[in-house]
Design goal:
The complex is a heterodimer. Chain A is mainly β. Chain A has strands at 4-7, 10-13, 19-25, 32-38, 44-51, 57-58, 67-73, 76-81, 90-99, 102-105, 109-113. In chain A, the strands form 2 sheets. In chain A, strands 2, 4, 5, 6, 9, 10 and 11 form a 7-stranded mixed beta sheet that branches. In chain A, a hairpin with a 2-residue loop joins strand 7 (67-73) and strand 8 (76-81). Chain A is globular. The model of chain A has no long low-confidence stretch (mean pLDDT 93). Chain B is mainly β. Chain B is globular. The chains are: A mainly beta, B mainly beta. The interface between A and B is medium-sized, with 22 and 24 residues.
């Protein structure tokens, strides 16, 4: 099956710094990728839709200046958490669409902000 | 606004027993997904249900979809410890079905 890779798997950073998380579709081109966040023992919450070559579409309540999304190519989307704070600590998961409802999830990236 | 609810939220059951997890959603959708998540891991795709009356089975798990009732079920048959995990259903929004709204999740614990 298709593979979606996230990097890094786990990152610990100091409060106030920015962190970039990458989501790559390794064996297919994804015009659309999605970013989710998951707090401990909770469900996944859709943050934004990342579209190749255009601006991301953010869900209500998600700060676009806080969570910068760049979908520079058909195989790569990046999520940058700017000026991270402890409340941004979460598990971030991306998914990539192969079209026709075929979705593949990355392994997830755990962010811990001290 | 599309809402997806799962029931129960937590389930502890003995090995060998059967049980059903329910997933209700509030607006029309044409596809429903079931995922498994182990602690600290991402999602593992279990089933994709695309039409009313669809039924899929894999091992001890069977999923069904009733689009008229906006209900999907995940039935566990003769549970084993390896099935212990959190199970999520997710529904595609009608307009952009690749955008998923996830249910609350059901944490399953199977004990001897």
């Amino acid at each position: 099956g298709a593979v979606v890779s996230q990097h890094p798997s786990w990152v610990i950073c100091k409060s106030g710094t920015s962190v970039k998380i990458e989501c790559r579709s390794l064996d297919f081109q994804a015009t659309t990728m999605f970013w989710y966040r998951q707090f401990p023992k909770q469900s996944l919450m859709l943050m934004a839709t990342s579209n190749e070559g255009s601006k991301a579409t953010y869900e209500q309540g998600v700060e676009k200046d806080k969570f910068l999304i760049n979908h520079a190519s058909l195989t790569l989307s990046t999520l940058t958490v700017t000026s991270a704070h402890p409340e941004d600590s979460s598990f971030y998961i991306c998914s990539a669409s192969k079209g026709r409802g075929e979705l593949f999830f990355g392994e997830g990236s755990r962010l811990t902000v001290l | 606004e599309l809402k997806v609810e799962q029931n129960p939220l937590f389930l502890s059951m003995q090995e060998g027993k059967n049980y059903t997890i329910y997933c209700n959603y509030s607006t029309t959708s044409d596809r429903l997904y079931w995922y498994r998540q182990d602690p600290g891991k991402s999602l593992e795709s279990l089933f994709v249900l695309l039409s009313n009356g669809a039924v899929k089975q894999e091992g001890r798990l069977m999923a069904s979809l009733d689009t008229k009732a906006r209900l999907s079920t995940l039935h566990i048959t003769a549970a084993v410890h390896d099935l212990s995990a959190t199970y999520f259903c997710a529904v595609g929004r009608m307009v952009n079905t690749d955008k998923l709204i996830f249910g609350t999740g059901t944490r399953l614990q199977v004990f001897p």
